[in-house]
Design brief:
The structure holds two protein chains of two kinds. Chain A is mostly beta strands. Chain A has strands at about 5, 10-15, 20-25, 30-35, 45-50, 55, 65-70, 75-80, 85-95, 100-105, 105-110. In chain A, β9 and β10 (about 100-105) form a beta hairpin. In chain B, β10 and β11 form a beta hairpin. Chain B starts with a strand and ends with a strand. By secondary structure, chain B is mainly β. In chain B, strands 2, 5, 6, 10, 11 and 12 form a six-stranded mixed β-sheet that branches. Chain B contains no helices and twelve strands. The chains are: A mainly beta, B mainly beta. The interface between A and B is medium-sized, with 26 and 24 residues.
């Protein structure tokens, strides 16, 4: 059974640019969530996708957007990057209606 | 809105000693509660969860946690820590529907030889 994988591992972008982060769900999981973890903080919920639709969102602006594909893989897109977008971005997958979320290793984004 | 408080930012424990990490939550209904562990540069690993039923739950790596509704607490315990337990520990709560997890700020566990 394959766990949650994320790519790339690290990324450096310039303020104002756009970035796309990718996630492959654990086998059999059809729900994916994204979290932002700033240095020294706990993860914060960005949004959740189920059946290719966003069905839950935390307190993040619209420049954070996502996609889920028929194979349940997912993308997180961030437009107009700001310095405080620098963080570890975590993807988590779960079964629909399941309460347990399984996390990937994360993508470390640095905005300069 | 739900919230989680982990009062201890850092805890230092000697190897072989017992451990208790504190977690208090705020949520209107019966919460779904979790403990995750994060090693440096890594993602989060689920240690244990509480949904309902027995208030003492067992997890992986010898950890257990006790749900106390009257105290709004879900403290994590381990009878004897190992050097490999040094990591960041996060308590989390989840409400209903498509809400994500709400995490505390974490407790950094240091193991002294």
């Amino acid at each position: 059974e394959t766990g949650v994988t994320q790519s790339p591992t690290h990324l450096i972008k310039t303020r104002g640019q756009q970035v796309t982060l990718r996630c492959s769900s654990q086998s059999g999981h059809n729900t994916v969530s994204w979290y932002q973890q700033a240095l020294g903080q706990g993860p914060q919920f960005i949004f959740q996708y189920y059946r290719e639709e966003e069905n839950g969102r935390g307190n993040f602006p619209p420049r954070f957007s996502g996609l889920q594909f028929p194979n349940y893989s997912s993308e997180l897109n961030v437009n107009a990057l700001e310095l405080n977008d620098s963080a570890l971005y975590l993807c988590a997958s779960s079964l629909a209606g399941g309460w347990e979320q399984y996390f990937g290793p994360g993508t470390r984004l640095t905005v300069t | 809105a739900q919230s989680v408080t982990q009062p201890d930012i850092h805890i230092t424990v000697s190897e072989g000693a017992s451990l208790e990490l504190r977690c208090n939550y705020s949520y209107g209904a019966t919460p779904y509660l979790f403990w995750y562990v994060q090693s440096p540069g890594q993602g989060l690993q689920l240690l244990l969860k509480y949904f309902s039923g027995d208030t003492l739950v067992q997890g992986i790596k010898g950890f257990e946690a006790e749900f106390k509704r009257s105290q709004s607490s879900f403290n994590l315990r381990k009878p004897s820590v190992h050097w490999s337990d040094a990591a960041e520990y996060f308590c989390a709560v989840r409400g209903g529907g498509a809400d994500g997890l709400t995490f505390g700020k974490g407790t950094h566990l240091i193991i002294q030889p």
